[in-house]
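pls ignore typos typing on phone
adenosine-5'-diphosphate + seq
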Amino acid sequence: MPLLEVRNISKSFGGLKVIKGVSFNVDKGELIGIIGPNGAGKSTLFNLISGVYHPDAGSIIFKDEDITKMEPYDLVKKGLARSWQIVRPFRNLTVEENIRVAFYGVGFKDSLSERNRRLDEILQMTGLLQHREQLAKNLPLGHLKRLEVARAVATGAELLMLDEPFAGLRVDEIKGLMHLVTVLHSIGLTILIIEHVVRSLLELTRRVLVLHEGRLIKEGTPEEVRRDKMVIEAYLGEESEVA
Ligand SMILES: Nc1ncnc2c1ncn2[C@@H]1O[C@H](COP(=O)(O)OP(=O)(O)O)[C@@H](O)[C@H]1O
Ligand SMILES: [Mg+2]
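k done
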């Protein structure tokens, strides 16, 4: 049984059909890249899976349960978490407080000592231990992206969906965040990562889905995808190349 099944979903905004019959499965423990040119519908796909929007047609199954019409706060409690393309921390709370809010959001029932242990573990894992007292608004973007991931992990996520986590980061920050993704994957999280270009995914994943004008046009390894004629054509006219 797959962890997530996306079955033939579609979504329109006004007259504009943005997602057109998209289907795919995600097995537990997979790390999958989703790429596509700007406006392909990638963020909308995440919004549909995470309950921000509901599809007009089709269904979404998570852990054998139909979640098609569920709301984000229910889905988080079921183990489905996403980060945003534009980071959304509580700017006037510290790093530590931001993570604690994520615990409360899912009604973390363990004892205070267990919660503190988990907090330290997450701070350590995400490289934010030395920054726990800092206000989110004073963090550089690289750390904010880590905080986004930390908050998602704090909800107890089984499926983590990251929307362009590397966008806007310096090379060293990208490397650090990539390492974090690898660590999260190695401890058993299932991860979906949206990326604009396939290059960033080469070292991370063996499976990439390509979205173009609301349709999945290709699925394969990063190498197969970057050489595919349809994929290259989908990116033509864009400033940045597929590779
Ligand atoms: N809430 C919305 N209302 C109207 N149009 C939207 C909305 N969200 C996304 N769109 C449109 O859907 C298309 C796909 O957007 P998006 O999913 O953000 O693409 P991507 O993340 O691949 O760049 C775009 O044309 C965008 O303008
Ligand atoms: Mg997007």
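The longest strand covers residues 16-26. The chain has eight helices and ten strands. more later
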